Structures are given as C-alpha cells and as structure tokens.
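Subject: complex prediction, re-run

Hi both,

The earlier run crashed halfway through, so I resubmitted it with identical inputs.
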Amino acid sequence: GNSVTQMEGPVTLSEEAFLTINCTYTATGYPSLFWYVQYPGEGLQLLLKATKADDKGSNKGFEATYRKETTSFHLEKGSVQVSDSAVYFCALSDPYGGATNKLIFGTGTLLAVQP
Amino acid sequence: DTAVSQTPKYLVTQMGNDKSIKCEQNLGHDTMYWYKQDSKKFLKIMFSYNNKELIINETVPNRFSPKSPDKAHLNLHINSLELGDSAVYFCASSPRATGVSYEQYFGPGTRLTVT
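This time it finished cleanly. Structure:
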C-alpha cells in the first residue's frame, strides 16, 4: 500500500542553520503531498502542500518540492529559529476505495533549535 | 474562534470504563475524521464521516464507535477501555471527502490515559 518514510529525529540545530528533513513516499497514482507541524501540546497545523509533480509548496520560509522521479518531498528552510522547534510530519493523501481521501503520515521528525 | 475543538483536553480513567470524546468544527466542512497518535507520535486514521455518513472505517476494535449527529459534530465513544487505548486522539475536518488537494484541519487533541 501507499506509505511515507521520514528521516528519524531528533534533529538538533543551532539558530540560523539550514534545515533539511527528508521525506520519500510510495504511492500508486498521483497523491497530494503535505507537511504538517505539531508544536508542543498542540494539534497539527498544515505547513505547506503540493498537489502535482514539480509543484513547490512554501510557507513561513519553509519549502518543499514534489519530485516524482525521486518520489520525494523534502522539507527545507534556509535559517531556522528557536520558534521552529516542533515535530514535522510528512503526509500523502491516499484515495480510499475511490470515494474519499485519507492522509497517510510519516513517523514525524522532532526538530530542536538551540539559541 | 476555534475552528476544530475537542472536549475534554485530558481524560484519565480506569480500565473497563466507558468514555466519550466530543469534536465540533465551525468551518462549514462536510468531512470529519478521528486519528490516534501513539506514544511515539505515530498518527493513524481511525474513522471518517462525510455529511453524517461513515466513509472510512479502519481496522479498529469495535469497542470504538463514532457518532455524527450532524456534519459539524463527530463524537468518539470507547467501551471497556484498555491500557493500550492510552494515546492522544485528534479530530480533524476537511471541506469535502474527495479532491486530492483538500487539506485537513486538526483539533488540539484529547490525551487519554487509562490506568
């Protein structure tokens, strides 16, 4: 079945460092891809999305490009801040019996940014 | 205004008890979901309703029963609670069930602890 694989954390960076969190997927068809962020004690928030190959999603300085040839959707940010410390989830939408979609999540990557 | 709200935020109970978690969304969405997040932060869908109709029912023990009185509400009732039910349960909603680009909006979560 469809699945998402994320790099294991935790990822620990100093403020202003460059961030990459790897995400690869396995899917039939053409799923949409998402990055969600979960701040401590909160629910998930959509960070960015891409709906077709070569689309680039971006938000709050984060970017990810839908690469069909490498089945990847890596998350990047040029300069992280302490406030970016959170768990980041890669997800794909999985058509479910043709009637609806469900999200399949990766295992999450904890990012800790130190001042 | 809270878009997706859940009550209670914390729930501590003993094995064998029956409990309910409530979810409400004021986004006017047609589709609602329940997810379970385990202690390792892994997220998995449990159920989904579209306009009060059950459309996703993953392999979940039948002790778990969702109920949707209207499209703005989706409750989760759990009978005969077990230690393994301890987790954070997230409610989510999306504009509609189909359409690969529709992201989901998550509630703040309910942390269930079974002792």
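Residues 63 and 108 of chain A are 17 Å apart (CA to CA).

- K.
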